[in-house]
Amino acid sequence: MAMAVPVSARPQSPEGFYAINNQFQTNGPKGFSEIKILANEDMFLRMDLPGVPDEGGLSVYHNRSQETVVVFAKAPKVHTHDSTERRYQTMTGIGCSCCAISSITTHMSDGVFRVILSKTRIDPHRSPCTVLGCSGFREDLRGTDPNDPALTGPVLQPHPLAFPQPTMAYESKQLPNGKLFVRADMPGVPKENFTVSVTNGRVKVTGQAPAVSHDSSGRFYSGDVAMLSTPVDIPSRRIKTIAKNGVIRLLIPPF
Prior knowledge:
This is SHSP domain-containing protein. Helices cover 0% and strands 42% of the residues.
């Protein structure tokens, strides 16, 4: 009988993981977030919030006194074996007194939150305004440069906005009945863009996340999530999967 066991994260190259925010990402913009000033001076922000549903999981508040936008999000437990629900909290906005936020356009899909902040000039005599970015993101993880070499490295980073644990992109649990439960975050991937295969005893998941709105580009994820004790090929239909909100969960039985 072939038993499934979890696997340790392996860097894709001698330089380390392509994206230290997610061990499965192999190309596309890196970082938990991406900030971009558009041609019309609106601010675009892409923020990975894996597990948060498209509807009902997000609250956005405009703090007019400080011209900031506060975001609260909840990723509920989807499977019995999820360790816990996850919550996210952050703040973004403009950092000056010369402008005011005039409109907020939000979009939540497949575990990714996108927002466009438009502004109105209220004091033309002051210096141009600046972007605050996202509180909670370390300076080198803000994602303002999605090709920043600092976002590639040997050490994976936990999600800076998620609480409580788990905050990493991979979770596994060996069950008493011999099955293995696995959760893998691949934010931006629609449920129909996930694939699962079992070849030579390795359980592999891939996911294609298309570019949405002002994303720099799409993203691709690929990696082993489990290994069987015997190097066999198994039809993927024998593995129960749940794919939603940029997260795929697998329940892998003994074969």
